[in-house]
Design a protein that fits this description.
Shape: globular
Radius of gyration: 23 Å
CATH topology of one domain: Carbamate kinase
CATH architecture of one domain: 3-Layer(aba) Sandwich
CATH superfamily of one domain: Acetylglutamate kinase-like
Number of strands: 20
Bound molecules: aspartic acid, magnesium ion
Helix content: 25-40%
Distance between the termini: 37 Å
Structural class: alpha/beta
């Protein structure tokens, strides 16, 4: 018998009708002779609503109480889904993260999983039950408090349980039918990928692809859990995320990803000496500013410019820290640029195919898109461009690399 772990996101269980439809699918999977373990997110936008509600009540919002509040969303969804399963004659039982034996550290609002004591779920499966576990939650080892794994954390719960219980696959059900060569809202001819490697998916996540949650893909890669991203609206087969198959030729390019969530900070005229970048980025790190791309220019007459990107939410903090450091490190100006976006080309095949960067830059040049910053990994090339040109950049690259249907 194989064990299938199915995770249903918020839109998949947004209302009673959706919950019943999910229950149908779980029942079908179980009647096909599989063991099924289900992980659910909170219904619809409930997590956002609970966070908003807390802001209307409190300015302090203590982490311990935030976690107690937020995890109530998933708990509610588990009980409702189990009731719908009972209506279909499927023996099922709901579990909070704590009851499921998911042990975490005490970092409230973004706890890390330390250990999974799967015996209770294992016993339920052996007794022929379908366990339904609340996503993104656990219990802290030290204080035995309820903890929340962070936004999107249900994917991580599902992958961790699949690993701990020896699941054959982990299905992530959502409102899109898989991972695409580009966002279909920007490129209508974008194609669903049948499979993509963990490495490529991680680069896509880091480049702005919103789903699945990056941490869950990292876990899946470490533990070699195959992931299947698919739709709970059409139930059609989606995209498999798994190890590269050495017997199959790799697509050169798998996708184009856009990210408009970052802004750029530049500090000009800093001395080109050892320790300058170290001091600036240490100060940024100590102030929890999450820095992404960094570019330092060639120095002219002993001074240079340093630019870096940060999430737009971190821009004010980034500017404050950089301005405060300017005198200490000896820079002239600190500039902010919100009107940037990043386009990334991802593909395992670029490791062995020369000319991908040249073709990318030529394509952007032909579109009249100026490149502001460039960064690369062995399987990714990213360019920062003007925000208003990002759609053209994605469309032209998608076409130039022949990614359409
Ligand atoms: N409901 C939580 C969130 O919206 C956890 C999850 O869906 O993964 O972030
Ligand atoms: Mg969600």
């Amino acid at each position: 018998m194989s064990l299938v772990v199915q995770k249903y996101g918020g839109t998949s269980v947004a209302d009673p009708e959706r919950i019943r439809s999910v229950a149908d699918h779980v029942a079908r999977t179980s009647r096909q002779g599989n063991e099924v373990l289900v992980v659910v997110s909170a219904m619809g936008k409930e997590t956002d609503d609970l966070i908003r509600l807390s802001g209307e009540v409190s300015r302090v919002r203590p982490g311990r109480e935030m976690d107690m509040l937020i995890t109530a969303g998933e708990r509610k969804a588990t009980a409702l889904l189990v009731m719908a399963l009972h209506d279909l004659g499927v023996d099922a039982a709901s579990y909070t993260g704590s009851q499921a034996g998911i042990i975490t550290d005490s970092t409230h609002t973004k706890a890390k999983i330390l250990e999974i004591r799967g015996d209770r779920l294992r016993a339920a499966l052996t007794a022929g039950k379908v366990p339904v576990v609340g996503g993104a939650q656990g219990m802290s080892a030290d204080d035995r408090d309820v903890t929340f794994l962070g936004r999107g954390g249900s994917d991580t719960t599902a992958v961790a349980l699949a690993h701990a219980l020896g699941g054959d696959a982990c299905e992530l059900y959502t409102d899109v039918s898989g991972v695409f060569t580009a966002d279909p809202r920007i490129v209508p001819t974008a194609r669903r990928l049948q499979r993509v490697s963990y490495e490529e998916m991680l680069e896509m996540c880091a480049s702005g692809c919103p789903k699945p949650e990056m941490r869950s893909v990292e876990f899946a890669r470490t533990w070699k859990v195959p992931l299947h991203v698919r739709s709970s609206f059409t139930w059609e087969p989606g995209t498999w995320i798994r190890e590269e198959d050495p017997t199959m030729e790799q697509a050169i390019i798998s996708g184009v990803v856009a990210d408009s969530s970052e802004a750029k900070v530049t500090v000009t005229g800093v001395p080109d000496r050892p320790g300058i970048a170290a001091r600036l980025f240490r100060a940024l790190a100590d102030n929890h500013v999450n820095v992404d791309m960094i570019v330092q220019n060639v120095s002219v007459h002993g001074s240079t410019d340093i630019s870096f990107t940060v999430p737009k939410d971190d821009l004010d903090a980034g500017l404050r820290v950089t301005a405060a450091m300017r005198d200490e490190i000896g820079g002239s100006d600190v500039l902010a640029d919100r009107e940037i976006a990043r386009v990334s080309l991802i593909g395992a095949g670029m490791k062995t195919h020369p000319g991908i960067a040249a073709k990318m830059f030529e394509t952007l040049a032909d579109e009249g898109v100026n490149i502001d910053m460039i960064s690369t990994s062995p399987i990714r090339i990213s360019c920062v461009v003007r925000a208003h040109q990002i759609d053209e950049a994605v469309q032209s690259l998608h076409h130039a690399f022949g990614l359409e249907r």
